[in-house]
Specification:
This protein is α/β, with parallel strands linked by helices and 272 residues long. The protein has 9 helices and 9 strands. The protein binds ligand BV8 and zinc ion.
């Protein structure tokens, strides 16, 4: 029988606040749950299905090979749905932390671009107005919904537009070599960019605290990053309404939503 966990008690948050507040080198690892309160469907939650498909069925090179139109239809739907979403208080709290402390670094599994939007918002108003959002930009392990990559020449372009999925002939093609474009994301069975993965692993090894927010910790190699922190002498703090495979190795696992817990956990009493 699934144990029901009490929602995070104030003393648990205080203890985690103390841990995170006294650390300099912090790795924040986020998953789809950090965007749940922005209205972005999570992968494995109740709203993770699209039509009758699970993400694992469509987010693969084989699915794209077999039916590029269907896969582009899913990505075009996600782009439109995510494009209407705004960062929530969790994205903002993380943006402020990474602005306040340059040794606090964000690694995300998400492809929704909401962390980047939160950084731009933090750089345009409030205590970090005028900062450069790129200074704290996240390491994106799995790419971006709003970028395409050419299947022929690897040419990459930013693309937030709608996708014409009426037929295979109307799918986006490369302006350089006319080959079919694909979403610039990492699909299941594809390797992550080695340099990006190396950078994330180095941060995990150096981190005093790995703060894991809103991930089911099922997808590797992302889910192994907190293990690296622990093996290198750091500690893991988790924020998730549900327990995950990481819960057992976390010194603190806060049961609750990111949008509620992160502002309490990360906001210092007086912002600089
Ligand atoms: C690779 C981009 C090898 C696309 C994604 C067995 C063991 C280990 C590995 C494997 C294995 N079998 C297969 C593998 C490999 C596979 C894998 O890990 N599979 C899993 C499913 C078992 N991994 C891969 O294929 C990776 N590549 O291994 O390559 C290789 C190496 C070299 C050369 C060639 C090959 C590539 C994985 C990347 C796949 N792409 N996304 C797209 O987005 O379309 S993964 C996808 O899942 C998303 O990126 C997502 O971020 C990621 C993880 O999901 P979560 O973010 O955790 O989301 P989820 O819905 O699962 O959970 C949400 C959580 O939030 C929940 O816990 C929920 O409780 C919580 N929550 C809900 N509301 C809130 C909340 N939390 C806080 N606040 C809230 N309000
Ligand atoms: Zn091309």
């Amino acid at each position: 029988m699934e144990r029901t966990y009490p929602l995070a008690e104030a003393h648990q948050i205080d203890r985690a606040r103390q841990l995170v507040g006294s650390a300099r080198r912090i790795l924040i690892l986020t998953g789809a749950g950090v965007s749940a309160e922005s209205g972005v469907p999570t992968f494995r939650g109740p709203d993770g299905m699209w039509r009758k498909f699970r993400p694992e069925q469509l987010a693969t090179p084989e699915a794209f090979q077999a039916d590029p139109r269907l896969v582009w239809e899913w990505y075009g739907w996600r782009r439109e749905r995510v494009g209407a979403c705004r960062p929530n208080a969790a994205h903002a709290a993380i943006a402020h932390l990474t602005f306040r402390n340059e040794d606090a670094r964000l690694v995300t599994q998400n492809v929704d671009g909401l962390h980047e939007l939160a950084l731009e918002e933090a750089a345009s108003e409030g205590p970090f107005k005028g900062d450069s959002a790129s200074r704290a930009s996240p390491i994106r392990l799995h790419g971006s919904l709003f970028q395409t990559r050419c299947t022929g020449c690897d040419h990459r372009t930013l693309d937030r537009g709608p996708v014409d999925v009426r037929s295979e002939a109307s799918l986006p093609r490369c302006s350089e070599c006319a080959a079919l474009l694909r979403p610039d994301v990492v699909w299941f069975g594809e390797g992550l960019d080695p340099e990006i993965l190396q950078a994330a692993m180095r941060l995990a090894e150096r981190a005093e605290v790995c703060l894991v927010v809103g991930t089911s910790a099922l997808v590797h190699p992302a889910a192994s990053l907190p293990l690296l922190t622990r093996e290198s002498g750091g500690v893991v703090v988790e924020v998730n309404p549900e327990p995950t495979p990481l819960t057992a190795l976390a010194v603190s696992s806060l049961r609750g939503s990111a949008g509620k817990i992160l502002p309490e956990l990360l906001t210092v009493s007086a912002e600089p």
